Amino acid sequence: MIELREISKTVRSGDHSLTILHPLTLDIARGQFMAIVGPSGSGKSTLLGLIAGLDAPTSGSVRIDGVDITRLGEDALARLRGEKIGFMFQFFHLIPSLTAYENVAVPMEIARTADIRRRAQSLLEEVGLTLRAHHYPAQLSGGEQQRVALARALANDPPILLADEPTGNLDTATGRYILDLLREIHRARGTTIILVTHDAELAALADSRLVLRDGRAVE
Amino acid sequence: MRFILQMAVRETRAAWRRLLFFFVCIAVGVAAIVALRSVIQNVREVFGTEAKALIAADVVINTTRDWTPSAIEIIDRRLSESGATSRTETISSPTMARPADQSRKVARAVELKAVQPAFPLYGSITLEGGQTYSHALVEHHGALVRPELLTTLGLRVGDEIIIGRAEFTIRGVIASEPGRGMGQFSLGPRVLIDFDDVPSTGLLGLGSRAARQWLFKVPEDRIDALVTTLRGELRQESATARSYRSNEDQIGRNFDRAENYLSLVGLIIVILGGIAVSSVTRVFILQKIRSIAVLKCVGARSRDVISIYILQVVALGLAGSLLGVLLARIAVGAIPLALGASSPSILAEAHYAVTWSAALQGIAIGVLVSLLFSVVPLLHVRFVKPSLLLREESTPPTRDLVGLAAIAGVAAALVAVAVWQAGSFRIGVLVCAGFTGVAVVLHLTGRALVAVVAPLANARSFPLRHAVLHLSRPGNQTRVILLAVGLGAFFIVGIRSLQASLLGEFSIQVSSDSPDMFLLDIQTTEVDLVRAFVTDPASGAGPAQFLPVLHARVVGVEGRDSALDDPLEPPSRGRGPEGARPRGGPLAREFTVTYRDHLEPNERIIAGTFWRGASPDAEVSIEQGIQERSGIKVGDTMRFDILGRMISARVTSVRNVEWRDSRNGGFMFVFRPGALDQAPQTFVAPLKGPADPAARARFQHDLVARFPNVSVIDVHEILETVRDVMRKVTFAITVVGGLVLFSGALILIGAVAMTKYQRVYEAAVFKTLGANTRTIARMLLFEYGVLGSLAGLVGSLGAIVLTWGVSRYALDIPWRIFAGEHAAGVLLTAVLVAAIGVLSSLDVLRNKPLATLRAE
C-alpha cells in the first residue's frame, strides 16, 4: 500500500523557486497497475522519484506499507529500495562497466540474497536475454538494455515496480514487447506497477490513470 | 564485503584503460622515490666513506697537550661504552727537516705526522711510483715524504733527513693521504714517520707544538652521542672531539646540504605523484557519478560505494607501487651501465641496489599517498543523489563538516608523510607551507582568470570563444589543472633553482682560479724582488697580490657604555688603565691584521663608511661576526698592541666578509693606510702556483733558494681533495635533479592527459555539429595554453619563495634567483600543457564521433 499525503516539490532555479509538483494526496493499493500520464514537465517523473525515495518532497509524506519514507535517512532509503522497489528508467541507466548478468546481480549482492547466480540467470531468461548475459551495455541494443534494466528491477522480487517512460527511448515494436513483459509480471507476480508515460495508448492498458498537468492532478 | 570486493574487481576490469593512468602515475612516482632513495642511500654511503677518509676515522679527539690520566680515563670509558671497534693514535707537529748531508745548508718547514700500524682507519695512503703503503715502510726510522720536500731539499728516495735529533731514511713519496682535507693550513710538506720513533726526535719536550690525536671507529648510531658526551667531558682537559659528520668545516656543511637537498627531492617526488593521483581520482569519480547513482538506486549505501572505490584505489596503489619497485630496480641497475666504468663520479663508486628500506618506504608511500589523495574526491560520493537518474541537476553546495574534517585529517597526515620523507621537521613543514601557499594562490588565480577572460566569450574566433567558455563553464577544469600543473611547476622549478644555487655555492669552492700557494714572511724590502720573481713568465705562477700583515692584540675598547659589557668577558679580569676595559672572549687572541684602501670582492660594508685613500689618523674596519660577538660599534675606539706599539684606532665601518669566497684571505680587522705604514710588518702573497707538480716543486725550490726567509705554504693538495669531493657531490646532485625533472614531467603529463576524458564527449558533439579537427585542436590549444602559462607563472613565482625559504632555513646557503630557470619554467609548462592537451585528445580528433557518443 502506497499512501501519498499532500506531497509537493519545489526547486530553486537561480533566484526563483519553481513548484514542480503541487500538494497531492493519493493512495495506490497493492497489486494495482497505475499509469501516470501528462506532457513533458508536468511532474510525472518527480512524483515517481518521490515514491521511490530517490528525492525528498518539499512537504507532505510518503508511506509505503505504513512506513513514512520521508523520515528515513539515505542509507535506510537505499535498503528500502533494495528490498521493496524496482526501478526502470527511460535511459536504462545500466552500469556501463558491468555485463548484463552483473547488472542484474548487483541488487541481490547488495541485499545479500541467496542463490544469486541461478536467480540472475533465470531473470535474464525471463526477459529473453540468456545469450547476451556476458555482454556489456554498450554491446546491447536499446531494447536489450531496457530488458536488462527490467530484470535488474525484478532482482529482489520487489512488491513495487516503478517505470519512468520505459518505452520512451524504444521503437514501437520493442516498446510493445517491454510493455507485454510488464503486464505479464503484474499478472504473474501481483507486483504493484506504477508506469510513467506520455503515451495515452500505453496508459490505456493500466488499471487506473493519474493525469498531471503543470504539477497538478487533473484527472 | 563480498559485494564490495566483487564490485572493485569488476570496476577495475572494466575501466582498466583509464585506471592505467592512475596505475602508471603511482608506479612512476614510487619508482622515482625508490630509485632516488636507493641512489641517495648508496651515494650517502660513499659520502660517508669520503667524509670519513677526510679525517681518516669516525671520531677524532685532538689535544695540543699531553694526555692527562683523567682524560685517558674519560676517553677509555666512553669509548668502551659506545662499542668503539678500533683506535689509533697519531702525533702531528710542525718542525724543520734538513738533509743529513752536512755539506748542504738547506732546511724546510715540514708537517710531521707520526702514525701507528692501524692508521688510517678509513681511506688509504697512496704512494708514487706504484709503491704500496704499509706501516713497515716507516718502521725503524723510515720516512715517507711529499715530492715538494725532495725538490726543495734536493733529495731522492733512499737519502737521509734529520728531523729534530733523529735521522730518517726516505723510503717513499706520498701521492695522497687521508686525514688531510679539512681545510687546515699546513706549514709545509708532509713527512710521515713511525709513532714509536717520535721520542727519539725530542720534539715532545717543553714548549712542544705537537698535537695529539686519537682516531676511532665507532658504530654509526653511537657517533653523535659519543661526540657530544666527549665534548662536554673533555672541555676541562683542553681536548676537542669531532666526528666525520661534524659540520664545523665547509666540506661537512656541504655534505649536510647535499643530503638535505636529496631528502627534499625525495619528498617532492612523492608530492608530485600525489597531485597526479588526486587529479586522476577526481576525474575517475566524476565519470562514475551515474553508476554511483544507479548503485544507490538499487539499494547500495554511500559507505558501500566509497568502500568499493577505496578498495580499488588501495589495490591499484599497491600494484602500482610494486611495479614502481620493479622499475626502480631496472633503473638503478642501469646506472653503472649508463655511467660507464671510467666516469669520475661519486655515483660510479657507489654500490647500486634497491635498498629494502627504500622499497618498503616506496610501497608504503605509494599506498598511503594514493589513499590520502583519493579520500577527498571520494567523499563526493556521499552527495551523489539517485534522483540524478531522473533529472540532471547540480547538487547545491552544502557545508560539509565530514568533508572538512577529512581534509584536515588528510592535511595532517600529509604533513606527517612530508616530515617523514624529508627526514627533517623543518624541511617538511616548509615544503608543506609552500605547497599550501601556492595552492591558495592558484585557486584565487583560477577565479581571477575566469573573470578576466569572460569578455573574450564574445570573441569572433570560434575556437577562442569556446576555449574561454570551457574555462568558465559549470564543471570546468580550470582550477584542477591550474592546481596540478601549478604545483608541479612550483616544485620542479624550485628544485632546479635550488640545484643551481647549491651548485653555484659549491663551484666557488672548487673554482680553479683560487690561490693554492701562499708566500709568507716577505720583508718590506723584498716585495718588489719577489714580485718580479713571481711574475717572470718562466716561473709558471699566476699573478700574486701582496698583502701587508701585522700581528695585533686588542688591548681595550674605549668610550663604551658599561651596560654593554661583553658577556664573554671573564669575570676575573679587571679594568685596564684609563678606564679602558681589556676585552676577553672573542677578542682574547692574537689577530693578523692588514691595511688597504679598498674592499675585496667578497666584502661589503654593513655599517659606517669605508675610507678613501690614506690618512695619518688610525681607523679600523671590523668584521661583522666579531662585531656581533663583541658588541663593538662604529664610533668606538679600539686600542691595539702591535708588537709592542700601542695604537688607538676609531672603528669607522663594519664589514660582512663572505668567508666561503675568501680566495684572498679574510681579515677580522682592516686598517686605513697611513697609521700602520711604519709598524713592523711582513707581506703575504696568495697566488696560483704552477699546475705541473715538477714546475711547482722547482718554483718553490728556486724561491726559497733566492729568498731564504720566505716560507711557502702549498695548499694545492688540500684544495684538490676538496675539489675532487665537491665535483663528485655536484655530479650526483645534477643526476638526481635530472631524474626529478624527468619523472615530474611524466607524472604531470599523466595528470593532464587524464582530463581528456571530460573533453571526449564534447569534442564528439562538436564534430557532429560540423567542427573540423583543426578547429577543435585550436580550441584545445587555446584552453590548455592559457592554463599552462598561468600555472607555470604562478608555480615559478612560488618557486622563488620556496628557494628563499629552503636556502635560508634548510640548506644555509645564500639565496639567489636564477631568472633563466624561472623563465624556462613558465615557457616549458605552457608548451607542455598545450601539447599534452592536444596530443592526448588525438584519438578523439581522429576517430568517428558516433563511437564516443554511444559510449557516453
Description:
The complex is a heterodimer of chains A (219) and B (856). The mean pLDDT of chain A is 89. Chain A is 35% helix and 28% strand. Chain A has helices at residues 44-51, 74-84, 100-111, 116-126, 142-153, 172-189, 200-203, and strands at residues 2-13, 16-28, 33-37, 59-64, 67-68, 85-88, 160-164, 192-197, 208-213, 216-217. Chain A has 219 residues and is an alpha/beta fold. The longest helix of chain B has 48 residues, at 250-297. Residues 181-185, 341-347 and 561-584 of chain B have low confidence and may be disordered. The A-B interface holds A 11-12, 45-46, 48-49, 52, 54-55, 74-75, 78-79, 81-83, 87, 89, 91, 93-98, 102, 106-107, 109-112, 136, 138, 152, 155-156, 164 and B 2-3, 6-7, 10-11, 13-15, 290-291, 293-304, 385-387, 389-391, 393, 396, 854-855.
Task: Compose a concise summary of this entry.
With 219 residues, chain A is of the alpha/beta class.
